[in-house]
Write a structure and sequence with these properties.
Layout: E1 7-11, H1 16-32, E2 35-42, E3 46-48, E4 55-57, H2 60-79, E5 87-93, H3 96-106, E6 111-115, H4 121-127, H5 130-137, E7 142-145, H6 153-162
Parallel strand pairs: 1-2, 1-6, 2-5, 6-7
Antiparallel strand pairs: 3-4
Helix pairs in contact: 3-5
């Protein structure tokens, strides 16, 4: 079976697990000759009122500032990537899983590479997992990268080579 991956989506929240997943996304895009889509979803902060039937959403100007900040972070990050990288960047607002799935459908994404915080127990129950939900609802395969997970063999080889081992 021939597998061709033309478009890879890397959704990022700029966390440490996302940075680890970024290494995989970049390496896969390079090895497969794929276009890499970098997406950040700004989730507008919502503050519930004491009666729990209403809430207050951040004013539009606050969300605009969050979007502008995310766009700058993405631009700074992409500037350090190899020049030959084919990168498409986007920042949107909404619920992370929905926006990632919508983006993947709209752009005909072949693979999503997402970091996961590796939470378990009560933390996982309370916070949930965007990566876990993506695996269940994404329109394409999802590669999740857990913090401290196994790295590509070539990366381990480069580390050993730079340390003087062969």
């Amino acid at each position: 079976m021939q597998v061709s991956i033309h478009k890879i989506l890397f959704p990022t929240d700029f966390s440490a697990p996302a940075i680890e997943a970024q290494h995989y996304a970049l390496a896969l895009a390079e090895r497969m000759g794929s276009e890499l889509h970098l997406l950040h979803v700004v989730v507008p902060p919502v503050l519930p009122f004491p009666d729990a039937t209403t809430s207050w959403t951040m004013p539009e100007t606050g969300v605009t500032d969050l979007i502008r900040h995310a766009e700058q972070r993405i631009a700074d990050e992409v500037a350090s990537w190899p020049e030959e990288s084919r990168v498409v960047t986007s920042v949107t607002t909404g619920y992370a899983v929905d926006e990632i799935v919508n983006y993947a459908k709209a752009h005909d994404i072949d693979l999503i590479v997402a970091g996961t915080h590796g939470l378990s127990g009560l933390s996982h129950l309370l916070m949930g997992s965007v990566a876990e939900k993506l695996v269940r609802v994404a329109p394409c395969p999802v590669l999740t990268v857990r913090p401290g997970g196994h790295q590509f063999i070539s990366d381990a080889h480069e580390v050993a080579t730079s340390a003087g081992a062969t």
